[in-house]
Amino acid sequence: MNTIEKFNEHVMQTYGRFPLVVEKGSGVCCVGEDGKRYIDFGSGIGTNSLGYCDDKWADAVCAQVRSVQHTSNYYYTKVQADFADMLCNAAGYSSVFFGNSGAEANECAIKLARKYSFDKYGRNRHNIITLVNSFHGRTLTTLSATGQDVFHNYFFPFTEGFVNVRANDIDDLKARLDDTVCAVMLEYVQGEGGVIALEQDFVDTVFKLCEEKDVLVIADEVQTGVGRTGKFLAGDWFGHKANVTTLAKGLAGGVPIGACLAGDKCADVLTKGTHGSTFGGNPIACAGGKAVIERVTGDGFLESVREKAEYIKTELLKINEVDSVSGLGMMIGIKLKTKNAADVVGKALENGLLLLTAKDKVRLLPPLTIEKSDLEDGLLILKKILEE
Questions:
Q1: 315 by DSSP, 3-state: which?
Q2: How far is CA 239 from CA 196, 209, 231, 296, in A?
Q3: Which of 36, 66, 244, 367 could be 51's S-S partner, Cβ–Cβ 3.0 to 4.6 Å?
Q4: Which residues are within 8 A (CB) of 62 and not within 5 positions of it... i.e. 6 or more apart?
């Protein structure tokens, strides 16, 4: 029995997987079980932010494994303290709760917002506005928060208390932001929804109205955060600091992690017994996170991300089949004129290039550390496919 047959015999079939068994990786490339080499422009859906098995990252994780791999959150660890300090300073927040995924980080943010409102205003001010086409996770509550009807099936009853507003529709926002709302939750760039950035006027209005009404702004930066857009947080492009920001994916370079960051206004809302996570703040994840933060906040790193992002966009727009390019930084959506995005991704796999889709677009989330030569090689493969 080969690996794929063995896998499918025992693992629930919840993903549409490609016929690739990844055996090892280094830098931007991975190698399949059959020895074939692939340039990875997806980086584990933006999770391998430093690529595969970066030396300094791997050394930090391995050293932690040989020190303390886990301890209960009834105790303290230095690595979690150091990581929390680094992350809060880099992101500009007061406190952080650590979980294991983006969905967990968003669950924490939702609980924090509702408790903030309950503590100040009592019951019945619990609704959270989310945007049409948003994606916030696959737990029951984060599915309920997700503004895509396709996800609202099978698992009834869904969690109540979420109101959807059309992205970039200021009138719709004003009509729904009433006295029952405790928070507005948004992605500055809707990743799973098609790599679509919000408009500045809409974001400005969200923050203005929320400030006036003492409504929290939650920024879901699970995919956009930690340098992905060329700033540490995508919110930095828009000139705003959300009351709560969630991070995951690239934060620990490939080790499971989630983080819910809170500013001064709501840093002390969650108190003893109101939230928890057995594996949250795991020493191994924190060690990986420290290595990522050190690299991303280093001199010239984010500038290099912005430069590479501009190069990718410029090269893509030279291809006749490319209708438009969306997104921010190295979070890129490619709208095609005639070809099917899923077909292009399949063809790219055959030619040694790993890509993603987002709705009807081809999506690119390369490692932030990718070298220009690897970019050139990958883009050449994609260009040949699109020009066939």
A1: helix
A2: 18, 16, 11, 20
A3: 367
A4: none
Collapse the DSSP code of 361 into the 3-class scheme (helix H, G, I; strand E, B; otherwise coil) and give the result: strand
Question: Dihedral angle at the C-alpha atoms of 143, 144, 150, 153, nearest 10 degrees?
Answer: 100
Rounded Cα–Cα distance for residues 247 and 224 (Å): 8
User: What pLDDT does 1 receive?
Assistant: 81
Q: Which amino acid is at 226?
A: V
Name the strand (E) or helix (H) holding 296: helix 283-296
| Distance from C-alpha of 202 to C-alpha of 38, rounded to nearest angstrom | 40
Q: At what angle do helices 301-316 and 372-386 cross, to 10 degrees?
A: 20
Largest pairwise CA distance in the chain? 63
- CA distances from residue 111 to 118, 147, 275 in whole angstroms, order as listed: 10, 18, 8
What are 378's two structure tokens?
Answer: 């990958």
- pLDDT of 101: 98
DSSP letters for 44-74: HHHT-TT-BS-HHHHHHHHHHHTT-S---TT
The C-alpha atoms of residue 248 and residue 202 are separated, in whole angstroms, by 25
State which H helix or E strand residue 332 sits in: strand 331-336
Please give the average pLDDT of every successive group of 10 residues along the chain, which has 388 residues.
Answer: 95 96 98 97 98 98 98 97 98 98 98 98 97 98 97 97 98 98 98 97 98 98 98 98 98 98 97 97 98 98 98 98 98 98 98 98 98 97 97
Pairwise CA distance, residues 379 & 388, whole Å: 14
